[in-house]
Specification:
Helix content is about 25%, strand content about 25%. It has a four-stranded antiparallel beta sheet, with no helix packed on it. Strand 3 and strand 4 form a beta hairpin. Helix 1 crosses helix 2. The radius of gyration is 18 Å and the shape is elongated.
Length: about 90
């Protein structure tokens, strides 16, 4: 989390320090602020959100966007527990 926060802050500082980059950011773009999940080296990121009876997760692979996945397990410990998943099929 610290790495992501620092990366965002560094890119924002670079953007605001250079008027041409700031102007480019205002033009329509898929990623006007340079915040895509690309860095100096490929990373795999797993984000987990746990609640009292559910667990949600998202997986990011900065080297291969086709591997991104997300899902949730609902009603943990309660009748009717289910797992919902979207992403690539297991290999």
């Amino acid at each position: 989390m610290q790495h992501i926060s620092r990366t965002i802050a560094d890119r924002f500082r670079q953007l605001t320090a250079d008027p041409s980059k700031a102007a480019a950011a205002l033009r329509k773009s898929d990623d006007p602020y340079g915040l895509t999940l690309k860095g100096e080296r490929p990373e795999k990121i797993l984000v987990v959100n746990c609640g009292s009876s559910s667990l949600k997760y998202t997986f990011f692979d900065t080297a291969d966007a086709s591997r991104h996945a997300r899902g949730q397990v609902e009603r943990i410990g309660i009748a009717g527990t289910r797992h919902v998943y979207s992403g690539p099929r297991a290999r």
